[in-house]
Structure prediction request, 214 residues.
Amino acid sequence: MRPPKVGDTIIICSFGKTEKGARIEKGILEGVASREEQATSSPVRKNYRKAKKSKIAVIVAICIALAFAFDIYVVYTTPEDAPRNKKACLLKENPAEKEYSSRLHVAKYICDNDHLPVYYVTKSEGIKLYEQKTGKTFVKWNFNPHTTLGVMIGGDYFDNREGRLPPAYYYEADVDYFGDNRGTNRLVYSSGCNIYYTTDHYKTFSKIVFEKQP
Prediction:
């Protein structure tokens, strides 16, 4: 049972000293409404709440529209990367965006920033992501990481054991993902825009050089 509010109909029973029975009177409860009652009954408050809900709905709709318009990517952080807070930005599975994996696009990014784009992950990170996404145990790289996982493989150390490149501390990165697996095309690079390209899995190399802008 709720407590009485202003405006409720009430029945009052009173007993007088000279009266034999109870006197029953009917009336309306008067007084000042509580803050809660004023808030729920006020037209201004009701209109304010409606306007607020409408505003939130409009903001949500705008955010969704912007997400589709600007192709916002989903970002994953793997447990191994937590100390470094490195994030892997997943590429969209869209054939029109092959430039994200092309050798010149990636090489130019390395030359300008001295590191790989954020959608690259190391081999160990790629294996863990594969097992998490597919529920299968990794056996070998018989799949395309771009189309299967939305990432590219790169950032592992390249030891240059055959000595085909000048002495330096090199890293490697996959490029040109157009087949059903990782393929054999790689960039091998070190600091200072020192970048080489191989199409035969490290047997031969060609140096990539970008002209400096005046």
Remarks:
- The helical segments are 35-41, 43-69, 103-113, 123-134, 145-149.
- DSSP finds five helices and ten strands in the chain.
- The longest helix spans residues 43-69.
